[in-house]
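Please, structure for the following, as tokens.
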Amino acid sequence: MTEKMDDDRLKALLSQEIHSALTYDDTELSQKRAQALEYYRGVMSDTPSMSGRSSVVSKDVADTIGWMLPGIIRVFTASDQMAIYEPAKPGDEEFAKQATDYVNYVFMKDNPGYRILWDGTHDSLLLANGIIKHYWDDKEECEYTEHSGLTEDQLAILGMEQGVEIVAQKQGEPQIILMPGPNGQMMEAPIQTFDVKIKRVTSAGRLRVECINPEDFLINREAKCIEDARFTGHRSDVTRSELIEMGFDRELVESIPLDRFSSLRQEAISRDDSATVFFNNVGDESMLMLELIECYVKADVDGDGIAETIRAYYAGAQGTGELLDWEVWEDDVPFSDIPCEPIPHRWDARSIFDDTNDIQRVKTVLTRQFLDNTYWVNNPMMDAEQGSVVNPEALRSPRFGATIYRKPGSAPITPLVIPYIGDKALLALQHFDNVREMRTGVSRSTMALDPEALQNQTATASQNQKDSAYSQIELIARTQAELGWRRVFKQLLKLIVKHQDRPRTIRLRDTWVEMDPRSWNANMDVTINIGLGTGSRDRDMAMLNQILNVQMAMTDRLAAGGFSAQALEMVPKINMTATKLAESAGIKNPDQFYLDIKPEMLQQMQQEAANRPDPEMQKEQMKAQTQLQLGQQQAQLDAQADERKAQIEAVQMQADIEAQNQKTNAEMIQAQQKFEFDKEMALLEFQLQRELKMAELELKREMHQQQMAQQAEQHRQQMEAGVFKTMQSQEQHEQKMEQAKTKPANGD
């Protein structure tokens, strides 16, 4: 039966694991990292220059990393959401969106997210594995302020605030105030005031993310990945004072023996030539440096035969250190690595240094030889007979305009002919540039630096060449995303859900939002948002524009076919494409430019579309109703015309009767009557024509109003059915404007 773990057994186990990890690091990893740092800085101690010869260094490692970094960083920072969480079960949809916004906010705002991303990616490219440490810091963050002239009431209100503690208090100068006296008159009265110093707790704990030096990370030799490693650790140099401040026993800390002569790690010296050996001989004992190792080791604690994870703090030199504290660790180990080129079945990966260090070494030698040969050709050695020159110093130290005096009868002074091999050296350098291109994908043509490299090539061939080279860089970015940053953000979500015990209000997209992660699913999956890769912005935007055009065409077909509900389902997809298009253009917050169509809004739009009547049927109904109204109005006009005609005939008949009865009247009277009759007839006819004209105008006005109402209804239907056409026209207009802006640059 396995014995339970005690301090002595754990101390011996840790000492053994630390020794094994340090041996593995020193023998296999440390030397390579130190050499990579030196090559990056242009320091090549393994390729010394000859005295008096060229000492130039070819910086292929730094150049290659410098060209790859911008593309990789742009992959992760093109959007304001580096990681996107996905629901793990029904009901997680809304929580996944909140987690995406909040965890990205914590990474970028609460922590120096861009610096962590840059350092982790840089360490990955140069040193093979970038190390990210993520943990929950329970340490309170406090703010101290001083207040003077507070009254007792104000002091009581201040003390009632949550998270406020009065750490110092003294009486201040009395304050004179006016108050009513016994007779109702105002009188001066002194009131006691206080000067206080308060401590305000601004945070009771927070998530911390750090990119630590790879040489400070320890792992057992047999490990294939951090998750399954038997031992991992983080070593750092701290003072005795810092250890006591962390809560460790003071007597135990002061009993740890010191290594009076300490040396910096090899990588630290390679990073900075000024770093050197330091002595632990400061005057104050509390400021003496100790090595602290935060260890995570798997061991059987309770004797049940099953290993648990233990977190332990080990301080002091190896073999003489002390176990400060330990506990059973229930979380995952707080480390993640960002690999560059993983090697199957090994933890340590390959780096860009591994791909280019031999090229830098060869190109350094070739460049020095090329320059030395050029120097010799430009300043050849002189062949002169001994004693033939009066002033031989002019040969040894030539200067412009100097005169060489030869003795009479002496042999002429001739320069030694040095064969020029510079052209051959340049061909050799070009060959190794091609080798570097095949290994890393970095070349002059892919970076569009050399116009000659793009001559005699079509645009398609040039783009294919760039895409082929970019694929190697894109592979590194995807590897870092899937094998490195994905674990980082999974651990961030777990830490937030487990340790944040209260809601928090943050500002997102100009809106204050409350985030309460206590109800989130900590096991939600996460995808690193790497967009379309590391290609050019023009290529990304062209691809997205093609997708957008196809989506708009599909939406129009569905709407024209009467499938309004299916057409509306394309709206969120079109919105997502437009957002990606804005991100590819370099806009950091594309959500500000588009409507956020939520599922509830989309469902409401679909219900309204389903309840809306058929436009064709509605059109036929309106046409029939219009014809009926026109028929009724025409019948009314016909009846009015018949009535007027009857009145005219009655008047005519009455006139005839009167004419018959008055035949005997004089011609003057008859003429007068005829004139009056004609006048009345003309008046009646004029009134009839005016009424007919007014009726006709009224009919036309009503018909015009009906037609306008019908056109307005049709226009409203067209506006609803063609909302996506309007969006398409707007996007095409923006594309034309963007193309107009980029055409001069492309022409250059």
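DSSP finds 18 helices and 21 strands in the chain. Residues 144 and 162 are 15 Å apart (CA to CA).
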